[in-house]
Amino acid sequence: QLVESGGGLVQPGGSLRLSCAALGFSLRSFNIRWYRQAPGKERELIVTSTLGGGALFALDSVKGRFFVERDNDESKVYLQMNGLKPEDSGVYYCYAMALDYWGQGTQVTVSS
């Protein structure tokens, strides 16, 4: 099971740090992806956190603003989001590809 947390309401330009925690297994052996879904839109891939600690961004609009951290000891992957914009609003999900596990999502709202 995956559990996301850290979402909330933030003003434009603000920051949030999302957390994806693994329950019952260790994240250290799996690539983890972050997705987001805005109302009325399809879920889109943001970034893949790789086993070696790298980050493969799929979304150009977040490059330089979003960063991925992996804490294998805590079995967590973090998505640090800076310079947030209203268009970043949506439900954010983490996903373990090899296990086909999705988290329940955490809501991010960027609004003044």
How does this model look, in words?
The protein is mostly beta strands. It contains no helices and eleven strands. The strands form two sheets. Strands 2, 4, 5, 6, 9, 10 and 11 form a seven-stranded mixed β-sheet that branches. The mean pLDDT is 95.
List the helices and strands and how they pair.
Elements: E1 2-5, E2 8-10, E3 16-22, E4 32-37, E5 44-49, E6 55-57, E7 66-71, E8 76-81, E9 90-96, E10 101-102, E11 106-110
Parallel strand pairs: 2-11
Antiparallel strand pairs: 1-3, 3-8, 4-5, 4-9, 5-6, 7-8, 9-10, 9-11
Number of strands: 11
How many helix segments? 0
Largest sheet descriptor: 7 strands, mixed
User: What's the helix-strand series?
Assistant: EEEEEEEEEEE
Low-confidence stretches: none
N- and C-termini, Cα separation: 34 Å
Helix coverage percent = under 10%
Cα-atom Rg, whole angstroms? 13 Å
Mean pLDDT: 95
Structural class given helices, strands, pairing?
Answer: mainly beta
Shape: globular
Oligomeric state as shown: single chain
Strand content: over 45%
Describe the structure concisely.
0% of the residues lie in helices and 49% in strands. The chain has strands at 2-5, 8-10, 16-22, 32-37, 44-49, 55-57, 66-71, 76-81, 90-96, 101-102, 106-110. Strand 7 and strand 8 form a beta hairpin.
Provide keyphrases for this structure.
seven-stranded mixed beta sheet; 11 strands; single chain; four-stranded antiparallel beta sheet; 112 residues; 49% strand; mainly beta
